[in-house]
Every structure is written in structure tokens, then in C-alpha cells.
Specification:
The protein is α/β, with parallel strands linked by helices.
Length: 325
Amino acid sequence: MGDAPVNWDERRALRWMVVTGSFISLFALALLCVVLAVVVLQFVPLFVEAGPAVAVVRVEGVIGSTDGDLFSGPGVRSDEVVKRLDELKEHRDVRAVVVRINSPGGGVVASDEIRAAVLRVRASGKPVVASMGELAASGGYYIAAATDRILANPQTTTGSIGVLAVIPVVEGLLDRIGIEVEVVKSGPLKGSGSGFAPLGDAERAILQDLIDGAYEQFVAVVAEGRKLDEPRVRELADGRVYSGQQALQLGLVDEMGNLPEAIDRAAELAGLGEKPRIIEDRRRSLPETLFSARALGAPSPAGVAAGLAVDRTAPLQYLYLGTGR
């Protein structure tokens, strides 16, 4: 009997299946390694050396008490920043903290919670320096005003000292699509600002009173932090923004400089030598790491405004919307 004929088509198909399977397996293994590395980094600090150090805490994006949304990006949660600052307050190796701010601000309460945590760090004897990035306006400036020293880039956008509330009125839209909303309430002012009808005079007066109270608090915080008279702060606090250079001339920041200079200044205030050790622990959740604002694109002012239109967790905002005010 002769040898069976070789089926070259089957051999080629088998070889192709082996190569393809190997490639898929290697790709899956590499992806698994990346996922495991990201998960591990959530629980392991990026720096584990011992010795005196300057810690960097980042406040980036819209400040809120909850996670960001599709429109405004992930933002920054006040409870996470507060927790980190309180940890650093107790960390024996941390001698100073730099708060890196790249934020248009956000919720009044969320901004104030971070400010209070900054003051606790300072009360422990550790200096805190603010480093302003592209944007450190409204609530971002509110936090910076609580630090020992503020450094900004000449082209930083800052200021926007003031308060706003965004209430979308959907009455006309509902009429167009044929939806009628009935609200049963216990009193004439219950449900104010729901958006199902324009604000009445009494409702507007109540909201304006809340805004005025938050504004007075903002003015007092800036006056205390910057050692300025309140009348002078009111002149500056009409909602307008300033460049970093203008803010320096107005006494709203202390000096020009970027993050490296802010770290050096914090080390100097803490009595550390040149080139201090830096602790920058930026642990992120897996979904946030894979689908962060950097991956999806930074939020636009219009996106922030759209996000506010559906945000009911923070009716009052120390927030800059990118329109000059």
C-alpha cells in the first residue's frame, strides 16, 4: 500500500488556527496583566520609600459630592480628597502638602469640605501650598485661599469669586412633546426650582437669599485667607476671572510658578532640603482608569452646564462656566 496523500489545505488551516490561537492567547494574557496592574495600584502606594516628603494631592475637574456624569466628566469627589488630606495629616513622613488645582469649582458644600480638610492639615503644623494649573476658578480658588501660599502660571484662569444656581425650565419643552406634569404639594413653596414652571417672585427671593449667604461666606474666606479687607474683596468678587499674572498684581496669588516650583516652596516652608522626596498617590478605580476624562476628552464649559442642568445634589455652585463670569 502507498502512503496516504497529504492534505495541504488541512495543514495550512491547522497552522493558521495555531498561529491565531497563540496570538489571541498572548493578547488576552497581556490584557489580564494590565487589568491586574491597575487593580493592584488601587491599593499599593506609588511610592514606598521612607523619609521626609512633600505630598501632592490633585483637585481636577468639577468638584462634587458624587461622581461626575456623561456631560461633565468624572470630576473630583470631595469625600475622596478629604480622606486623602486627613491621611496625609497623620502621615509621619509627610512634612508638607501641595494641592494641585485644575478645576472650575463646583458644589458650595463640596468645596467647603475640601477647604476644611486643608485647614486641618495646616493646624497639624504642616504647610500647604496651592499650585494652580490651567484653571483654578470659583470653588477651585475657594480651596486655594485656605492654603499658606498660592502659585499660579501667568496664564492660569482664576478668580470667578461668586455663586450661581442653574435651574433648567422644561415647561415649554414638555408642552412641545405633549407631556403634562401635575405636582401635588403641601405648600406653595414646596417644589421650588423643580423646572416644571418658571420661578415665582417668592421662589426667586428665597433662592437669591441662599446665594447671597453663600457669597458672603466666599468673601469672608478670601478676606481671611488672603489678608484682605472685605470691601476690597467685594470689588474683586463680581464673578469675573483673572489671569494668573493679574491675580498676582491684585493680591489673589503669591507668586508665579508651576507644580515643581510649588513643591520646592512647600519643601522650603517645611524646612526640607532641595529636591525633596515626593509622594503622589493617584490611586484610581478600574473603570475610572480605563474610561477617565483624559481618555474620553476633557469636559467643555457647555458640557459642564449641561451636567448642571440635571444635577440636583448641589443647587448652589461656586462654579466657573467658561463664559467670562
